Amino acid sequence: MGKVFISLVVVFIVIGGALVYRATQSTSSLVLSPSEVLEKGSSRDLKRIRVGGRVVDPIQYQTEPQMILSFSVKNPAGGEGVVPVVYRGLKPDMFAAGRDVLIDGDYLGGTIQAAKLQTQCPSKYEPVVPGAAPAEGDKPTMAMN
Amino acid sequence: MVEFGQFSLCIAWLLALAVVIGGGVVGSGARTTPARLESLRRGTILVALTLGTSLIALGYLFVTNDYTVQYVWQYSNRDMPWIYKITAIWGGMDGSMLLWCFLVAAFSACVALRSRVYPRAIVAWLFSFLSSSTLFFTTITLFLTNPFRYLKSPVVMPDGNGLNPLLQNEYMAIHPPMLYLGFTGLAVPYAFCMAALASGQMSNDWIRLTRRWTLIGWTFLTAGIVLGGHWAYLELGWGGFWAWDPVENASFLPWLSATAFLHSVMVQERKGMLKVWNIFLIVLTYALTVFGTFLTRSGIVQSVHAFASTDIGWTFLVYLSTIIIVALGLSIYRRTELKPERAIESFFSREAVFLLNNLVLLSICFAVLWGVMFPVFSEAVTGVKQTVGIPFFNAVNVPLFLALIFLMGVGPSIAWKRSSLPQLLRSFAVPFVSAFVVAVALVFAGVVEFYPVLAYSLSFFGLMTILGEVQRGLSAQKGITHAGTWSPANLTTLWRRQRVKYGAHVIHFGVLIMTVAITASMAHKIEREFTLAPGERFSVGRFSLELNEFHEEQLANYEAIQAHVTLRALTSETPLEVLVPEMRFYRKNKETTTEVALRMGQREDVYLVLAGVDETGTKASMKVFVNPFQVWLWYGAIIMVVGGIIVAIPVPRGAKVRDSVSDKVAQSV
User: What kind of architecture, by CATH, is found in domain A33-124?
Assistant: First the structure.
């Protein structure tokens, strides 16, 4: 192999590795389930976390003066405890009780302050039991709150 | 019809198995007779026909609302328009796997139809490796994700569950098939590569054939990825088009390695270098398409739109390991034939720049792969699961992409082997100075952020190098054909004779436009939330929005609330457009979705989402995004795809001779 080839490959491994390492250190989040949030967050706040959970009622969606969505999540696979979540922003499509969501944010004072909220969905829409009712959504009426 | 579809699938599986074994036996035997090759050719075509029949049978079951079939019941209902009943074929995993089988078989059939002109020594192995891909996916479809299974229910269900509302969109008709065409198309170069290695036919013939097939797969994949982005932009209501989600990344990874190959293959064609590297890229590309399928079917990482966790993930891992082991084994076996004919002599040469381009693309590929798999790695190593999101991908990829844009400008204008300082100055002095002037102008215009200024100026640098290439080509052309005079005929002659080269410039031009659009939409986007009563106005950017009225709609599949909002320029009372964002409630699925109202403009998009209506029904809350130059992202993508088509079209035999002469003249200038 030529010297040029080897030098270029080595330089790129170093540069690429450094970029990836630095970005990972400064942006990574802890992945937790709702029950782990309750356990680890009982004595301290948790910064930069991602929580995958199932939405449970009650859901409150305030659109004025600011869009604020308040709800709770529990472990999708079952388990103890629910964690309250507050998300300032537009309610994502198909958000409803029973739906699985991904939340990125901080756990502060017993509530997840969500910076990003995503409903897990399209291709996962697979009711398993024949005749099983899909998750209940909100029917849009003139009263949205 | 269920039995017919199932029977066709079984026949396809048996035929694919026969071609895999037959191809191997004929390929490894001493005599590859035309009769044997013809049998393999027909077998390959028949696999595609039988899988096509099976797919049509599934479509028939959807259209006729046959809810005795579990898959049809799961993804369709009577109220759905017929077009969505067709697109529901690939709405879930089972049907999407069948579509995958058919497409890979269809590509194999296309190769088979052209196989008479291919080197005979590799054809038998080619059919064998192509059909091995079909066989793998057909095995999964037949035994693990069969869409023809009956619903286990004591009574016939009167209606189905229906397709997810977000998938009831016209893009569902084109985005997944396009993406799958890209994935499956990339199985062809892999098969060519393995066939060449297995047969020992290591001349550059196979690599030239591979390049065209890679371009076809690459073009489909490009179109599929961008269509997905466009769909997300129109449908999901968050004002963006790309979120670095694992499913998006799964399609992006093979695109990156295929792009790298499309550049490095030229070095092998011209200079006989990078032979092992090219094999690595081809195998990596195919392995990444399989890995992407694994990622979206295994539930190994969290995603907003991954398929449900299934137990078929292990099959992909086994297949992935097989691909790598076979490729590695054959490469070691043929190592003497894979020695490069020469080494790269200088950093200032086209081959070095192409290698740099490859390294940047693979660095991006590695970073994306790392980001996707980081939760798995971190948990395996530290026992604590961590993840990375959009900030990670942007932090790593923005500088790497800008390096790529720079190399994209340098690559086509630098000489093969070695460039002297005068040559470099002649090619790059004007583009460099122009890019610097643009950077200074932007700073004076108030754009002071580092990355946007760099992105705009590098894009301009790239544009100037393309124009410089065209200008040099025209000069060479008029020198040889029109006795030193210029005429419009020069341009058409140049285009006709060097279509592939200028097709590549078209692709690069599309990339530059996309770069500007992405930079503008990332750096200068405006995002506001507001609430209005009828007659009230809200100002955003250079526009005002006035709520006129609400309107309720009842359709067969859903009911909706619409807000009618008049868009005006701040400087005028003349309405530009009435935007109608809406909220829909799908009765069958009990799902609520929002429908975005969008005004696409050359300067910016106004993107309006209805968030809700208050209790009294007199006020609407909305979110508006003003996305500068967004439409240029789609234009750039169209230009890239057009460029891909231009390059992929076969060059007439006579033109090849002229091309080489003309190219030599152009290179000498």
Answer: Beta Barrel (2.40)
